[in-house]
Amino acid sequence: MPTVPILMPQLGESIAEATVIRLGIAVGDAVRADQEIIEVETNKAVMGVTTLCDGVIAEIKAKEGVSYSVGTTLGLLDVTEEEVARTGVDTLESVEQKRAQAAESLPRTQAEANLHFALDADDAYEEAPAVVPSVKGLPVPTGTMGAHYISPRMRARMDDLGLREADISAVAGTGAGGRVTVEDLECFLDYLEAWPSTQASPMRLSVADAMRRSWTRPLATVGLPVLLERVLAHRRDHTPKPGLTLYMLRAFALALAENPATAGYLIGDKIVHPRAFDIGVAVQIEDGVLVPVVRQVDQKPLRELIAEYDDLVDRARRRRVTEDDCRGGIATVTNFGTFGLTMGTPIPLPNETLILGIGAGVKKPVWSSEAEVFLPATTAEMFLTFDHRVIDGGGAGVLLTRVSRLLQQPELL
After folding, report:
1. Count of other CB atoms within 10 angstroms of residue 91
2. CA distance 354 to 323
3. Most buried of 70, 125, 213, 227 (most Cβ within 10 A)?
4. Is there a contact between 273 and 261 (Cβ–Cβ < 8 Å)?
5. Distances from the Cα of 187 to the Cαs of 147, 165, 174, 177, 193, in angstroms?
6. pLDDT tens, residue by residue, 256-302
7. Domain 3-105 classified CATH 2.40.50.100?
């Protein structure tokens, strides 16, 4: 009887691996074609691995909580000759044959190609910057390289461990000019061995990577209080009721459409303008944030956006959004007021220049020029974080003020 491998599928263009979070089958179970048998988690969503044909589970190689790269054999399926002929699936024998042929055609490995880097490059760095004692007697590098220089040997060890430069910022360097050496790193890791730890989820690692890349730019934040009374009154008169974030999404898109350069992205000596005003919405999920994108927000009135927005947010909370759902946004809106927070400095995604955030609504006395008295009104602090290379504080202030004014005319959104 032929055996068909159950492989980790390609779940998205940029997804190289996924973590098994639930095995829905056992050895001996009969399964049908396209049946979801294994649930896996990528850095963006929870997806299902399905069978390609009818058969019986012969072996389960995958384990829950373990990550597997695309193409890894997760299990084996016993099938009939007729089923193989009907579906055209690859048997285990043909898959292994293809892998062997691919391996033979590959050039020598990167490790073989880079053997000449095996020499300790730490010894080659002879011109160390001057070191002077600080007030506490600790050496402080006065040169320009110092701890910022990472030798090839150190870089190779960091690659082995999956570490980035930000991960070694807490390591005290004893090398020339305060550089962190491999020995410093190993001592630091040994020191941490006794500390309690937990494995970071794929989602947490994805967020960490995005924030590292975002923080390589000069980011700044401006804020402005916004009156919510008219938005809240407008919302009460509608069924289904639009969420506050949706009002912000629509006002933000309209303000950006009036001045597209504010959402531009700096590439070399050019600012690339957006070709569509697709805005992401930050959705908090367990151990991370997903940002599904609402398309052409400037072209659709608020009432037409409600169903699309609610569906995206619901699927994001259930980790059922696709990679395409989260792709192509030019900016993001986040409502951290849902957590009771009144202020914050949100960080835009690496591929975006702007993120608009709003805090919790608070009742405050607000001056009424008509009645000439202070009246209670719900206000919230609104914040815009931006790439300072693309726009300045004045431009960001104008944009934020425009969003605030649009929110005072919710019937036009």
Report:
1. 16
2. 21
3. 227
4. yes
5. 17, 17, 11, 19, 10
6. 999 888 888 888 888 889 888 999 999 998 878 889 999 999 999 99
7. yes
